[in-house]
Structures are given as structure tokens and as C-alpha cells.
Amino acid sequence: MQKYGLNKLNKLVTIPKNPSLHQLNQRIKNSIQWFGKACSGQSVGESFISLAIAIESLLSQGRTNKETKSLYIANLVGSSHDQHMSPIPQYVSKEFLNGLSKAKNQSEKMKTIYERSNQLFEIRNKLVHGSAGIEAIDPIALIDFEALVRNSILSVVSLSWKNEKDFVNWGRKIRSKNANRKLINGSN
Questions:
Q1: Domain spans of the chain, in order of start
Q2: 3-state class of 7 per DSSP?
């Protein structure tokens, strides 16, 4: 369990708030609460929107666009820092799993995760802004979104950020990396 960040997660929930970790802890707790709501949602649409709120409460800093959130997810779930965070084959769509399996290296794996995340945020945007209804959500998309959100939460919990500032600096570093810019721009 410790390997998957659950020990640290348990400490976040049970130990009194450390002032230097308060914002980051709150970010993680909010995300977990929304993830729980997604798991008990009464409909595919309710669950999908709850997952979107879960990942946005974890990763967003104000108005964060879908490309940036997708970039964060690709770095959290697809980075070599935590191989066990990869989506578990039984819990993702065959199409997504095929893309991950075909990846020849870490960069291709991250690109696959980035592209799938972007597709899922596009569905979220259409739902929230009214250009599509609940029927636009394929249940397979919900499965992939759940896997990415779950693994993003676990990855954040397992990282050694000391406070919110460390998290913000990580985000800046991720956005500025040349390789990550290539993901967003679609270059190889």
C-alpha cells in the first residue's frame, strides 16, 4: 500500500493539518471527495462531471486550459517517476490500452495519455458549455477518465511536495519543458 501512496494519503486525512501543507492537503482532499461522488454518481453524466471537478480541483490554478491540465495528467500518470501509476489494463478502454501498449518509449506513452486527456476535457467542455448533452458521453470515456483521475490523485499523493508553492513550481517547470511543449503542439 505504501508503494501506491496510500500511507501518505492516510496521514493527510488523519494527522492534524500541517500549516505548510494545508493548501496542498486541501487540494488533495477536495479531489478525493469529488472522485468519491463520481464513483457513486446516479448517471454517466453526473459521474463524468464529478471526475472533471475532481481533476480540476487537484490540478487547476485559476483558469487552467484543457491542454495544460492534460499536460499535467500526462506528466503525473505517464512519467517514469512512478511506473505503477499507469492505467491498469482492466480499467481502461481497449483503444486507450492499445495506444499505451504501442508506445515505444516514455515520450510516446505520455503523448497517448495527453491526447486521451485532451479528448476527455473536450467532452467536459461540450457538456458544461451546453453544446452537447449527456448522450455525448460514451461510458468508455467515463472508464478512461476515472483511471486517469484516480492515478493522478495517487501520483500527487506519492510525490514529495512540501507545500503548495512546490506544486505551483512543478506546474511551471512542466509547462516550460521543451518536450512538453512538443506534446501540446503535436510535434515529435
A1: 2-13+23-79+87-185
A2: helix
Letter for the amino acid at 66?
A: K
DSSP line for 85-148: GSPPGGGS-HHHHHHHHH--SHHHHHHHHHHHHHHHHHHHHHHHTTSS-GGG--HHHHHHHHHH
Q: How far apart are CA 136 and CA 45, in angstroms?
A: 9
Residue 150 corresponds to which cell in the numbers above?
A: 484516480
Grid coordinates standing for 17? Answer: 493539518
Helix axes 139-158, 6-14, angle to 10 degrees: 80
- Inter-residue long-range contacts of 162-165, CB under 8 Å, 24+ positions, other chains counted: 162/20, 162/21, 163/20, 163/21, 163/23, 163/24, 164/22, 164/23, 164/24, 164/27
Nearest Cα residue to 103 out of 76, 80, 82: 80
**The predicted structure's pLDDT at residue 11:** 63
* pLDDT computed for residue 16 by the predictor: 46
pLDDT tens digits, 131-160: 777 777 888 899 999 999 999 998 888 887
